[in-house]
Amino acid sequence: MTLKETVQERYGQAALRVHAGSTSCCGASAALDGCDPITANLYDAAQTGELPQEAVLASLGCGNPTALAQLNPGDVVLDLGSGGGIDVLLSARRVGPTGKAYGLDMTDEMLALARENQRKSAVENVEFLKGEIENIPLPDNSVDVIISNCVINLSGDKDRVLREAFRVLKPGGRFSVSDVVTRGEVPAEVRKNMLLWVGCIAGALQDNEYTAKLAQAGFTNIGIEPTRVYDIEDARTFLSAQGVDVDIIAPQVDGKFMSAFIRATKPASCCPPGCCQ
Predict the structure, then answer these.
(1) Would residue 130 count as lying in a domain?
(2) Phi then psi for 47, rounded to 5 degrees?
(3) How many CA atoms lie within 13 A of 227 on its CB side?
(4) Residue range(s) defining the domain that contains residue 52
(5) Between residues 252 and 80, which one has the greater pLDDT?
(6) DSSP of 70-121, one letter per residue?
């Protein structure tokens, strides 16, 4: 099974569990009790109170990009890997009726859940698109803000994702995503475990590598702001659920994984070829 197929299957199963009244936290068994240090307690009650419970249950992210991103009335927002739609719906309310929020996801079950959540929320300035974040189905220079919540690290071709993000952003557009990044070397055993890609860990870039890739794609004003740094006991929680020997791995990952808010800007004037077509 390819990485794409693995991610698609696992997130499709997560959507089906939400329909059945429960979900999983990046592979863990419990759902509503803050079981996972990555996914737990990301949204406050004021935000979740506006949304269907299914949208909240289907959130498998590592941050809250809508709380940190600059979103203005009238903005066009794109959420890469939108899942059950929580960040799309929150963004749509912030940009108002003159703006629009797109959600992009490759999993049919998540798209169906997101559209149902949109219907329940009665939010009209939203459109969910089927597609891959490596091939965004939107024209050049069409989006003001790109958000994403612990999804880019799941891609096997992050360079292409960032090039595509740069392409669809308008000049002066903003890249504002939550993602898991690493500091220092990560044990090979972690990166080799395919399930950990789905669990938001093994695909994480080093912070300086993420910065370099954004710059190579053409972005400027790049910044990485840690939002949660994970310790040994955090590692024990999410690694044990994947069948990993925690006592061997956990000491090696202590403090090396963190959720972060990553900002960058597409220059307002032309720079790389095709920037301002």
Answers:
(1) yes
(2) -80, -50
(3) 27
(4) 3-265
(5) 80
(6) ---TT-EEEEES-TTSHHHHHHHHHH-TTSEEEEEES-HHHHHHHHHHHHHH
Give me the amino acid identity at 26: C
pLDDT at 57: 52
Q: Note the pLDDT of residue 68.
A: 82
Instruction: Let me know if residue 237 belongs to a domain.
Output: yes
CB 100 within 8 Å of CB 129: no
What's the structural domain count of the chain? 1
Amino acid at 272: P
Most confident of the ranges 13-27, 94-108, 219-233:
94-108
Q: Say how far apart CA 17 and CA 54 lie, in whole Å.
A: 10
| Other residues' Cβ atoms within 10 Å of the Cβ of residue 84 | 31
- Is 164 within the bounds of a domain? yes
Residue at 272 is within a domain: no
* Rama region for 14: left / alpha / beta (φ>0; ψ in -120 to 50; rest): alpha
CATH number for the domain spanning 127: value is 3.40.50.150
